[in-house]
Amino acid sequence: MPDTDQGTTEFWEEFYGQRDQVWSGNPNRLLVREVEDEPAGRALDIGCAEGGDAVWLARRGWRVTAVDVSATALARAARHAAEAGVAEAIRFERHDLAESFPDGAYDLVSAQYFHSPVAHGTERADALRRAAELVAPGGVLLIVGHEGWPSWQEPHDFHLPTTAEVLESLALPDGWLVEVQETVESPAHGPDGEHGTRADNVLKLRRSAP
């Protein structure tokens, strides 16, 4: 497990510095499932990593603001966007979301696997509440996270919240509709060739139009 006294930026820079590419470059499949029928508009991708989701959204006509705490990840994401021919549709911004957020209102705010082993206290819940505030009327907040550990792995001492816990922590005012609240179990593969399953939580919320 990582050193929990390690700073957020330091941890994620070290994480991405261990290899030239961490993720596949493909969009998260649960994002695709929930967003592919949504009309394109303005999207905010928090914790965008190496840009797979942001590039997929841009290819579908979205104007994307993609944020991450890691400058290394953002540089790779920008390169991915340029190679995909969608660089002009994506604005990349570096933010430690415990300290700052991008400006604007968005038709989609996406938080895909927004977990951090070095987050302290209520930082994740606070960031998701702030993200919800940026959803425009009629827009969607989509939060996808791990429900538990892969079937081949012993659980760690790290709490992965349920959809009910996330919903409670958001403390949303009136005017929000829960469209999807479910746990999805899928085949999964580990870095050393392991095969098994992993369960993910999906929470899709829509802010009422005026």
Automatic annotation (TrEMBL):
Gene3D superfamilies: Vaccinia Virus protein VP39. GO terms for molecular function: methyltransferase activity. GO terms for biological process: methylation. Residues 44-139 form the Methyltransferase domain. Keywords: Methyltransferase, S-adenosyl-L-methionine, Transferase. It holds the Pfam family Methyltransf_25. PANTHER family: METHYLTRANSFERASE, UBIQUINONE BIOSYNTHESIS O-METHYLTRANSFERASE, MITOCHONDRIAL. This is Methyltransferase family protein.
